[in-house]
Every structure is written in C-alpha cells, then in structure tokens.
Amino acid sequence: MNKELEYWQLVERSIIKKYRRELWKPFIRAVQRYELIQSGDRIAVCISGGKDSMLLAKLMQELHRHTDIPFELCFVVMDPGYHPANRRRIEENAEKLRIPVTIFESEIFAVANSVEKNPCYLCARMRRGHLYSKARELGCNKIALGHHLNDVIETTVMGMFYSSKLEAMPPKLHSKNFPGMELIRPLYCIREDDILAWQRYNRLEFLQCACRFTEQMAGGDGVGASKRQEIKLLLRSLRETNPNIEKCIFNSIHAVCLDTMVGYKIRGTEHSFLEHYNDPPAQNAGEAEDPA
After folding, report:
1. What is the pLDDT of residue 116?
2. Which of 50, 114, 186, 249 has the smallest count of CB within 10 Å of its CB?
3. Pairing status of strand 182-184 against strand 172-174
4. Residues above pLDDT 70, as percent of the chain
C-alpha cells in the first residue's frame, strides 16, 4: 500500500509532475544553458519569503536530490526589519515546506527608509551586501536569487524607457566587492504566471511584499505604484495583441547584433560603431537592412 504523502511532499511532487513543463524543465534548462552550478559549489539560496524565492528553494532541493553533480546548499533568510507577522509567516512557510533556513538580522529597512531619494535602490544594494557577507561566512561561493523571466524582461524594457540604455539582467555574474563570490539566477527561464499558478494550486500564502515602505502599495495582482509595475502593466496590455511579446524580448537579449548598434559598452568602456566602420567587410556577412 502506498503511504499517504505529507503536504510538503505533495508540493514537491507538483513541481516534478503537474508543473514539470512550466517549472522543472525551464529551471533545468537555465542551470544547464548558463552553467550555473559546478561540482563542489556551496550555494546560499536567498529567501525573502515571497513566492519566487520559496519556489527557488524547493527547486534547488529537488536538483540536489536528483543530480549527479556534487554541490551543497544552505538556505539563508535575512530579516532587514520585517514586521513580526511577516517574520512569522516566513518561518511557518519554511517549516511547512521543509526548508531548513538560517535567519540573520539587519536594520536595512530602518536605514533605507530614512532617506528621501531612491530608498529602494539603497535597500537593494545593502541587502545584496549583507547576503554576500553571510554567504561567505557560511563558506559559500555562490548566492542564488529568485529573479524570473519576467524580471529579466521588465528590467530590459525599463532600461530603455527610463535609463536610455539597452541592458539586461544576466543569469550569473561575479561579485565586484566580494572576490570569489558569484550570483546566479536559476529561475531565469521561468514565467511569473507559472509561479503564481503553482502557488495557487498548492494553496500557499507567501509574502506579497515584506518591505514596510512599499507593502501598502502592492495589490493582489502583483501590481503596485512603481516604474517596474508600470512596465508590468504595459507588457500585459501588449500581450493582448501579441501573445509572444515577452518571448520576443527575452530572445532578443540572446541575439544582440552589435554590427547594427551605434554605440555599446563592454567592461565599463564605451565604444562607437565608427571604430570599425571602415574595416573591410567580413566574408559572407549580410548587410543590415536600412530601418528607414
């Protein structure tokens, strides 16, 4: 007779079975395509308490259980000044899902919310620094964050609209301030709608936004008052006439045609198309079409 599964086991099964195409396969695709995990890694999975980081933790547990690549995991929760109810919810969800978290405290919210200009930017930088420091203290060489495909797309569009830059969110990068540490994004190919579907299917209640500065502005649909949320709404409306809009934007950051760019920056150095304008054309290279 089959033993009745516990709740956390049913949640894990839903990842592998019901949402295999939407969650497990794109997760594995990102890990393999971008070479996110190597033998001997010790990875700090950073958990904020939201749906993305909690799913990331479960996916990493499943990968650790099934892969032949030897690596280690630790699950880190930084409390930057959560409301006590939010802190309790994180702890309860971690226990419910059998995620063995290590919690440490900081006063980031108090510091960030005391400044008038760009508190969210300051908060993000401080949180990243604290997470790197804790990960290094725990003997880790990588931190894993829960950014998903829609975060990547929205960041790309935001850069164009508000920063006058064509830039994306890479699936991994080396830390500039913590030598030997690396950041990875294993949810890179997973759509936010599929994460929400998994959450609803399992009747899970995660934090919508644990930040005291912004939690009152976020609605139940994940849309609040910020530039990122403006872009989220714009993409939703564009999807009504072009269902593939997000896929096209995501694929475009994998196929940047530098030959058509007037300027670009690499490793902090700016370059102009004029540098190579008079170079002999490469053999078999097709001419770019005149956009006019």
Report:
1. 63
2. 114
3. antiparallel
4. 85
Distance CA 230, CA 178 (A): 33
Q: What is the mean pLDDT of the chain?
A: 88
Phi/psi of residue 207, nearest 5 degrees: -70, 135
**pLDDT tens sequence across 187-215:** 999 999 999 999 999 999 998 765 555 44
**H or E segment and range at residue 55:** helix 51-66
Residue 67 near residue 59, CB atoms below 8 Å: no
- Paired tokens of 292: 């006019």
Q: Which of 78, 68, 126 is nearest to 104 (CA)?
A: 78
pLDDT at 221: 43
Q: Distance (Å, rounded) from C-alpha 55 to C-alpha 197?
A: 12
pLDDT at 54 over 50: yes
Band of pLDDT at residue 218, cut at 50, 70 and 90: very low
Beta strands (DSSP E) in 2-114 are 42-47, 72-79, 101-105
Beta-carbon contacts of residue 255 (< 8 Å; ≥ 6 apart): none
What the block records as the tokens of 219 is 């609605």
What is the C-alpha to C-alpha distance for residues 87 and 89, in angstroms, rounded to an integer? 5
Neighbours of 135 (CB within 10 A): 25
